[in-house]
Amino acid sequence: MRTDCENIEKLDDQIKRLIDDMFETMAAANGVGLAAPQIGKSLNLFCVDVTGWEDEEDMPLTDTVTKRVFINPEIVELSGEPVKFKEGCLSLPGINEDVEREQSVTIRFLDENFDEQTETFSGIMARAIQHEYDHIHGKLFADYLTPLRKSLLKSKLAKMSKGIHTAKYRCKNQ
């Protein structure tokens, strides 16, 4: 999960099945996003589904699109005053920390039909996109934490690296 991923050259049945499996995995784990490297695939692919965040007060849903596939994405622009929000990750179960991210993201990508799109998202969708985009470039949200916060989480992170965690879903280290 700490390396850049490879572009997907064509949309075939294997990639379509992978996308379906990623949405299913994400839903089963109560996640809002999942990137291919999180499931051991070094591909420039992530899925986001923020359905159900409509009533979230701290990070409201501001887009009409709530579910999307991003293949070979490239962030074109980040904009808006950065906002802190408590973020978590399926790869770091049980850890939720404040992370600052821009309010809007413009991203160019191929959709689930392999059609090129360039769209701007804001709110929770923008946050989820930035989070998952980081995964395909070898970053975790914990990389944004201050050294003090990281040191306070050190024992939890060490346990996770050994496969010891409290997630109710199977993790790669198990």
From TrEMBL:
Instruction: Please indicate which superkingdom the organism of origin belongs to.
Output: Bacteria
Under Gene3D superfamilies, the record lists:
Peptide deformylase (3.90.45.10)
The cofactor note reads: Binds 1 Fe(2+) ion.
Please list the reactions this protein catalyses. N-terminal N-formyl-L-methionyl-[peptide] + H2O = N-terminal L-methionyl-[peptide] + formate
Keywords from the UniProt entry: Hydrolase, Iron, Metal-binding, Protein biosynthesis
Per the Swiss-Prot or TrEMBL record, the active site comprises 132
What does the record give as EC number? 3.5.1.88
Q: Which GO BP annotation is one of this protein's?
A: translation
* Record: residues binding Fe cation: 89, 131, 135
Quote the InterPro entries the UniProt record gives.
Answer: Peptide_deformylase, Peptide_deformylase_sf
Q: What molecular functions are annotated in GO for this chain? A: metal ion binding; peptide deformylase activity
Going by the record, the broad EC class of this enzyme is hydrolase
Similarity section: Belongs to the polypeptide deformylase family.
Give the protein name, as stated in the record: Peptide deformylase
From which source organism is this entry? Mucinivorans hirudinis
